[in-house]
UniProtKB/TrEMBL annotation:
It comes from Paramecium sonneborni. One of its GO terms (molecular function) is GTPase activity. PROSITE patterns: RAB, RAS, RHO. InterPro entries: Rab_GTPases_membrane_traffic (IPR050209), Small_GTP-bd (IPR005225), Small_GTPase (IPR001806). This is Uncharacterized protein. PANTHER family: DRAB11-RELATED. Residues 181-225 have a biased composition (Polar residues). Residues 181-233 are annotated as: Disordered. Belongs to the small GTPase superfamily. Rab family. Pfam families: Ras (PF00071).
Length: 233
């Protein structure tokens, strides 16, 4: 690829309210976990992160969506152009696992048919209500590409989930023209731009830049903003 461009992959994170989507994204983008984080995502927020996976430099745009029902119709439009979707449930909340089929139905309606699907059982540090074998069965029955049990608190498998997703996106770009055409894959990089590079413990990935704060998008109306419930999502 040209030195003046780099791949840009859009990832979207969905799942029921309170499964830890925002904490999952924050752990990956900033290596942080805020105990008792209770502010609900209102609409959609996103963070950017520059990474190197298998010697390829990539910009990730990670879209963190609200789990509340009133935002569902708005969120559908954000599947457009997404290369991968992380579908989260909490291993300590049985109802969040049972609602996965609803999220899949929405995904099938709104996303490209070749979007890479990653099933994530979050909160693996807590007491289990959903068995791993159940999730693996659900994964296989619904054509997910990957499955991870993660902890946004300890960081277990969080980085691995994103790294493996990037690898799959790159692979699919080379094997499917329709997939490649369905995602926005390239952005310009100024020739004189400077970036600080820090190396991660895993040689397959180097973090070059991450956003310090998510960017909150405008929601349906101000009234919904003011009345959104302050619960973890």
């Amino acid at each position: 690829m040209s030195k003046e461009s780099l791949p840009m992959f859009k990832f979207i994170v969905v799942g029921d309210q309170s499964v830890g989507k925002s904490s999952f994204v924050k752990q990956y983008s900033e290596s942080q976990f805020i105990e008792g984080m209770s502010k609900a995502t209102v609409g959609v927020e996103f963070v950017k992160k520059l990474v190197i996976v298998d010697k390829r430099r990539v910009e990730l745009q990670i879209w963190d969506t609200a789990g509340q029902e009133q935002f569902r119709s708005m969120i559908k439009s954000f599947y457009r152009g997404a290369a991968a979707v992380f579908v989260l449930y909490s291993i300590n909340q049985r109802d969040s696992f049972e609602k996965l089929q609803d999220w899949l139905s929405e995904l099938h309606e709104s996303a490209h048919e070749e979007i890479i699907k990653i099933l994530v059982g979050n909160k693996s540090d807590m007491e289990r209500c959903v068995q791993k074998e159940e999730a693996e069965k659900f994964m296989n029955a619904n054509n997910f590409s990957l499955f991870f049990e993660t902890s946004a608190k300890t960081g277990e498998n969080v980085e691995k989930a994103f790294v493996e997703a990037v690898k799959l996106v790159i692979m699919r770009m080379f094997t499917s023209e329709s997939f490649k055409n369905s995602i926005k894959t390239t952005k310009k990089t100024p020739a004189n731009s400077k970036q600080n590079t820090s190396r991660s413990d895993q040689p397959i990935q180097e973090v070059t830049q991450s956003s310090s704060k998510p960017i909150q998008l405008q929601t349906q109306n101000n009234q919904e903003n003011n009345h959104a419930k302050k619960q973890c999502c």
